[in-house]
Each structure stands twice: as structure tokens, then as C-alpha cells.
Amino acid sequence: MAMPKREPTKLVPVPSTNIIPERDVDKSPILECRHLGIDFGGLTAVNDFNMAIGRTEIAGLIGPNGAGKTTVFNLLTKVYQPTRGTILLDGVDTHSMSTVQVNKAGIARTFQNIRLFSNLSVEDNVKLGLHNHISYGLWQGLFRLPGYWQGEKVAHERAMELLSIFDMENLASTKAGSLPYGAQRRLEIVRALATNPSLLLLDEPAAGMNPSETAELMENIVKIRDTFQIAVLLIEHDMSLVMSICEGICVLNFGQIIAKGTPDEIQADPVVIEAYLGKQKEG
Amino acid sequence: MNKLKSMSPATRTNFLTYAAVILTFAILQPLSAAGKISPTLQGQLVPVCAYVVMALSLNLTVGVLGELSLGHAGFMSVGAFSGAVCASALQNVIPASGLRLGVSMVVGALLAGIVGTIISVPVLRLNGDYLAIVTLAFGQIIKSIVENLYVGVDAKGLHFSFLQPTMRLGEGGRMILNGPMGIPNISKISTFLAGFILIMVTLAVIFNLVNSRSGRAIMALRDNRIAAESVGINVIKYKMMAFVISAALAGAAGALFSLGQNTIVASKFDFNMSILILVYVVLGGQGKMWGSILAASFLTILPETAAMRDLKDYRMLAYAIVLILVMLATNSPALKGFFARFFRRKEDKTEKGGAQ
């Protein structure tokens, strides 16, 4: 399997003891979580979650099943309201924001169990991502005023441009629900990108993909970061993917961060090895 | 014909729907003017148009927004009574019956739209079954309100009274709406032409909406609400938009309907009526506008034909049986497979056509 070569990254601390890549340090982190936590009834799902992501960083969030990774995504996108702590998106507290407002402020995501608009065409799915960037309103649409044609033309061109990242232009008129699994995952990424985010959250983007599709996906994630100059945070169980493209990795177990660092540091960390493989028997 | 082939399947269906409606009107209108069609059918032309618009507008809520509404007759009722009151009050102001009908339909649509907006505030915070039950309750509330509303008109303008039939009207004043007795002696100003225009307007509104930014957002809510929120679509706003447009169209249909009748009473627009319209939508296929048109037309005309006249008492029974049979048929894997094969072959052909 061809792996894209990862540039060696040096992680440096920002004021709150979180670490981000050195090249992003002259700008403030795009996302910073401070002591983030949520309780469901008596269960503490995530606790004292501290993390910072640099503006152009590809960061990974890993951990065993049930560690709370997707819960962190749901907290960041305000599907759940945090019980404790602060989320700073580009320095702005997202405390009072809803899911929709957080998206407008710059966080886009994909879902672990794919959530496409499956009865709509591929192009319409991307145009829905562009929803808040098309400016015409209800009346212009109902009466087909010039604003409608102009807006739809721009949306169509932009949608095609975005679909071309994954070479999916020829699928534009296909119903999203009838796409193969891998293509559905790619379409979800395109739709998220269409909302013009500054931070892209990918929840297991390679799940269900074969090795060659995974390799292609990795190249594309790096390409997306380079083209759009955005930060990417991904949850993934495929360690080869995580270790080859992520610059900073955060390991979560039972809702707590147990390790943070570069891929090399994480791979060598005895605490991480213990969380994944269990404790080595003494003697 | 080549142009027709080059359209996307959805655009082609829309285009053919318009064409079929225009063609039907072009055939029926001269026949009706020449008195060549039977009096029963002649009398059904306007109600059929009203029911078609009702089915189309409910299909916007059920098929496009994906929420079940059981109180659609309530909006028709609002439109019917406000339209009839408006037409009656304007009798001397606007002598031209066509213009008066148009104004009445707009007033009916506006009032139904306003009622729809008020109702949508609590309703749209709910989902699924709960939403359906609340719309059912609202349908009943509207019916009760209209049954207890008295409206009179005199030189000073309209007078309203609730629960009390006594009303002091000036010289030359008359009652228009008499509570549970409804509105008697309506001057029948609805025409088949007006019905046809309303159907075309409704189709244009729905098709243009569905193919626009707002319509896409509404369908996104139907397909996956959580994903829609994640790409920044305001759920309440677009749910409300679909619901209010649907209510306003139903209001216009109500005005068209009432102005084609001699008398209307509030009890006509009850739960049975809501279910009847839902049957049209489900039979015709959710989200399929041509299906709604066909189902509404056939199921309105069929019971009126000579053969079915004698069985009129069993109409609801027949509906129930037809509904059960359609549900069974559309959910049977064997039949589904058969139709899927048929449609796939058809799609292959169109794809080849597109490539040439």
C-alpha cells in the first residue's frame, strides 16, 4: 500500500499547555478545548478534555471503542451541550451557539454512520452544503427571478468543482443513496467541505474502505488540507492511516485523554499500548 | 422531442405533468362549454380542481417535507369560509365575478397561511406521530371555531360575533355566516377555468419550490434532519415554510370549492375530509405530484358516476378496501421487484438516448 510521506512535524505548546504544530504557532489555534466534559445522567462520558488544533494541522483522535471520540465530535458541533468546560473556535466561545451556528462559524463534519440526503442527487447533496453560500431567497426561487438563475449557476459550478476533488463529477445526477459505500463517504466529505469550514471533523472516514481506497483517501485528505488551508480532526481505527497523515494525535480512553503527541511518541507510549492491548503480565 | 429527452428525469416529469393538465383542460373546456358532457360531471369539474389542489398541497407536507398532517381540511375550511365571506361582502364593490373570485381566493390563501403560521409555531417543535396528532387536534379546533362564528355585513362593514347569534346590523345589513348553519345562498362564481389556473399555479409553486435552494433544504430535512443541521440548515424555518405554503394553497382551494357550492357548513371540513385527502396523496404516491392529481380526480369522479351512485353509502368502505389493497401491493416484494425491473429497463433506454 502506497503511503503518502508525512512531513516531520514538531509540536510546540501554546499558552494553555496544549500542543500544536510549530508552523501554526504564530497564529492562534483554530480550535481549543479547555476542561471540556459531559455527563449523561450519572455517567461521565467525557471529562477534562483539553486539546488545541493548529490552523493547518491534521490531527487524530483515537481510542478504543466507547472511549468517547464521537461524543467529542458531538460536543464540538453542539449536538450535545457540554456540562463543563469551554470550546474556543478561532478564539470565540461557542457556548451559546446551536449546531447550525457552529457550522456557520466554521466547523463541518461527517458522520460515523453515513448521513446523506439519500433521496437527492449527488449534486443536490453538495448544493445543500453550499446552502448558506447561495444568496437568493424564497421568492426569487418561486418566481424564477434572475437571482435564482444566477445563484443556481454559481452553485452548480462550485458543486462540480468540489466534486472534482474526488473525481465524482460524472456521478452528479446519481441518487446519493444508490452510490457505493466508499463513494458515499467521499460525498459526505465533499458536502462538509462545501460549507466552507475552517475545521473539518471526519468520523471514521476510512471505515469500510479497501486498502487502495484508503490510500487514495489519505492523499485526498492531505490535498484538501493543502488546497483549502484548513485544519482536519479525524477519528479513525485504521492505525496506518492515522500514523501516516496525522501530525498531532490525541488518545482517549474512558472519556479521559491518556496521551498526546506526534505519531512516533504515541506509538512508543506504554500507556497507549496498555489501553489498546491490555496490561503486560509481570514476571 | 429531442429536447424532451435531454432534460433531467425530474424536469421531464414536471414538464409532462404541466402538459397533461393543460391537455385535459383543453379537451374538457370546449366540451363543457358546448354542454356535451353529462350534468354530473359538469357539476364535478370545480370540486375536482379543488380536491386536486388540496392533494397537491398536502403532498408538499407529506411527500416533500415528510411530516404527516391530519388536519389539512382545517386550512381548507379557513379558506372556504373566509373566501365565501369575502366574495359575499364584495358583491357590490366588485361586480366582475372573475375578479371577485380571484380576490376571494387570495384572501382565503392569506388567511389560511396566517392560521398555518400560528399553528406551525407549536406544531413544528414536534416530530412524527406527535406532530400528526397535534395537527389532527388543530383541524378539530378550526372546525369548532367556524361552527360558532357569526358574520354579518352592513354599510359600515363586517361584523363578527362569537357564540352569540344576535347581532345588531345597520340598514340593509344581512348575515353571511350563521355559525353551524354555515353560509347559505352562495352565488356560484367558481369556474372550471379558475380551477385550472389554480392547479397550474399550485404546480408552478411546488415545482419551482422543490427545485430551488429553499425546496432542497425542505427535502434535506425529510431525508436526514441531523445532517441538515450539520450543514447549517435552519430546521424550524424550512419546516415552517413548507407548512405555511401548504396551508395557503389549501386555503385557495377552499375558496374555490366554497364558491362553487350553494351552501357550505363547517362540518363538511371534518376529520374524514382530511383523511380523504391523505388517501389521495398516499394512493398517488408521496412526493409524486402527477399521482396526487390522478388519484384526486378519479376518486372524486368515480363515486359520482351512474354505476357507483347506488353504492354511495359504501364509499368510505370502498376507500378503506382500496387503501388496504394499495398498501399491500406497494409493499409486496414480488410486485416491487416486478415494477423495479420494468423501470430499470426504461432507465437504461433513456440513458442510451442521452448518450447519442
Which features does this protein show?
heterodimer; A: 283 residues; alpha/beta; Rossmann fold; 2 domains; six-stranded mixed β-sheet; 12 strands; 35% helix; 23% strand; B: 356 residues; mainly alpha; ABC transporter involved in vitamin B12 uptake, BtuC; three-stranded antiparallel β-sheet; 71% helix; 5% strand; globular
Give a concise summary.
The complex is a heterodimer of chains A (283) and B (356). Chain A is of the alpha/beta class and 283 residues long. Chain A has ten helices and twelve strands.
Description:
The complex is a heterodimer of chains A (283) and B (356). Chain A is α/β, with parallel strands linked by helices and 283 residues long. Chain A folds into two domains: 1-106 and 198-278, Rossmann fold, CATH 3.40.50.300; 107-196, P-loop containing nucleotide triphosphate hydrolases (Rossmann fold, 3-Layer(aba) Sandwich). Helix content of chain A is 35%, strand content 23%. Chain A is built from ten helices and twelve strands. In chain A, strands 8-9-10-5-11-12 form a six-stranded mixed sheet, sandwiched between helices. A four-stranded antiparallel sheet of chain A has the order 4-3-6-7, covered by helices on one side. In chain A, strands 1-2 form a two-stranded antiparallel sheet. In chain A, strand 3 and strand 4 form a beta hairpin. The mean pLDDT of chain A is 90. Chain B has 356 residues and is mainly α. Chain B has one domain (14-29, 38-310): ABC transporter involved in vitamin B12 uptake, BtuC. Chain B has helices at 2-6, 9-33, 39-65, 72-89, 97-123, 128-147, 192-210, 213-223, 225-230, 235-258, 271-284, 289-301, 306-309, 315-331, 333-355, and strands at 149-154, 157-162, 174-178. Chain B has a three-stranded antiparallel sheet with strand order 2-1-3. In chain B, a hairpin with a 2-residue loop joins strand 1 and strand 2. The model of chain B is unreliable at 347-356 (pLDDT under 50).
